Amino acid sequence: MKRVLVIVSATFLALQVRAQSVEEGVKLYNYERYESAKQALLPLAANNPEANYYLGLSEIGLDSLDAAKAVFGKDPSNFYNEAGMARVLFMEGKKDEAGKLLNDIVDHAKKKDWERYKVAADAITYTKGGDINSAIAWYQQALEKNQDAMIYIGLGDAYLKMQTGGGEAMNNYEKAVEKGTANSLAYSRIGYLWYVAHNYDDALKSYNQAKDADPANPLPYRDLAQAYQRAGKYENALQNDEEYLSKSDKNINDQINYANILFLAKKYPEAAAKMEELIGKGAEKPYMYRIIGYSAYETKDYPKALSNMQTFFSKEKDTSELINDDYIYSGKIYIAMAESDSVNARQYTDSATAYFNRAVANDTAADKSELYRAVADGYKDAKQYGEAGKWYGKIIAAKPDAPALDYFYWGYWNYFGKNYDEAAKAFAQMKTKYPKEGSAYYWIARVAAAKDSEAKTGGAVQPYKDWLDFNAEGYEHKDADLMYAYQYLTYYYYNQKNKAEAMTWDAKILEKDPSNEFALSIKKYFETPQKEAPQK
């Protein structure tokens, strides 16, 4: 009798361990750790239909559709495998065949049989092509038999696929929390709902609850990283994505996204190195060369940038995957190459122009301001300031209500490109459009002074005096700017032999800079007249 008890006890223990192992594999699958789930489920799949089903789903998660078919084909009459095969059929665009399989599953459900309804509903919820209303109805039938937390989560996910289903999704996620057996997943879903509703405090609270419910769950960290990324908080995104990677299977797409966040966080060498590492491991995708090219441009390694962008364009056969930034960066790279290679400058400049024009042609936005600014930045970085000013002028021409800063840069870069007439036009329009912007008054004077570099015509006298009299709330006349004004006025009145005016402005220079050589020479000239003119 004792021997029988030992055998029974050992058998029970083996079954319990096996059940726990299946449960662990399912949890890994739900946490989207597909490779880990696969390894956990492989030894169990031959004797456990549920383990085999999740093994097949893990293969789908790994984008191994043929392997998934083979797994589900081992026992094609088992309802788990039928549900798995339905997912494959949906992914192949065979929705009618998939629907027939799912209807067959639920038609054979017995009185207390809830699993059939759940797996059939899951097949619709987590693929594309099925009737989401059928999935909702099947989840509800499953809940009549077993109020399991994962059924509530599935029902919430189904509602989330409906345009106005957010409220019902939240209700079901909260019911899942009440069950207490899948809280980390449920809180992750609730955090997502709060985030898309722009309720960021509650989203953060829910994500932290998801972390606390199961520290091994990587999904809250991934979701937080994505949320911070969308909000433009890239350092926070990077921190959470690194935590996510430490807990996940680090699949290729996850690592690519990590490299992308590195780029957005302006960690350009690290972003490029990560993409190069993945290429070296045989995980090459055209997108990777894009990030390497962009990053190389940002670190001023223009030959490397050009080489990688050329590789990207040659490998990306699907033109729908190209984005306007590809053309913008290419244009900026060619402009930078023109600046550093005078022999081929004309060729590079022509290529840059072609890419910039392609970007403009492809941009369907009614307001192209952002695009024009990006082009202008490329010219500015290459020190082609006049061209930069020209593109800011395009913004104003297309959008007269553009912000004051766009008017400013239209004039500013034309000034440094020595296009003084265009700069004067820009600042005059800025003054008219934004009369409380003191910088317009100042730069009108600076442009006039540049056109009268020897201070003989007095073209900048009144503009500088207008600027000095300008007194809008919050505006500050900076010392460096004041010195430009005082020196011009001093020099003009010196040229006019107007001692009183010249000495008045000269004194203002010396008040700020007692050792200023120009001001001291003017003072000396008028105090002890001499033939030689002081040098500005």
Features:
mainly alpha; 536 residues; 29 helices; 74% helix; disordered N terminus
Oligomer: single chain
The mean pLDDT is 93
Helicity range:
over 70%
Instruction: Please work out how many helical segments DSSP would assign.
Output: 29
Low-confidence stretches: 1-18
State which percent range the strand residues make up. Answer: under 5%
The string of secondary-structure elements, in order, is HHHHHHHHHHHHHHHHHHHHHHHHHHHHH
Measured between the Cα atoms of the first and last residue, the distance is: 114 Å
The total of beta strands comes to 0
Radius of gyration: 35 Å
Shape: elongated
The largest sheet, given as strand count, sense and whether it forms a barrel, is: none
What class would the helix/strand composition place it in?
mainly alpha
Layout of helices and strands, plus pairs?
Elements: H1 2-30, H2 34-41, H3 49-61, H4 65-72, H5 79-91, H6 95-107, H7 115-125, H8 132-145, H9 149-160, H10 166-179, H11 183-196, H12 200-213, H13 219-230, H14 234-247, H15 252-264, H16 268-280, H17 286-298, H18 302-315, H19 324-340, H20 345-362, H21 369-381, H22 385-398, H23 404-416, H24 420-433, H25 438-451, H26 461-469, H27 479-495, H28 499-512, H29 517-527
Helix pairs in contact: 1-2, 1-3, 2-3, 3-4, 3-5, 4-5, 5-6, 5-7, 6-7, 7-8, 7-9, 8-9, 9-10, 10-11, 11-12, 11-13, 12-13, 13-14, 14-15, 15-16, 16-17, 17-18, 17-19, 18-19, 19-20, 19-21, 21-22, 22-23, 23-24, 23-25, 24-25, 25-26, 25-27, 26-27, 27-28, 28-29
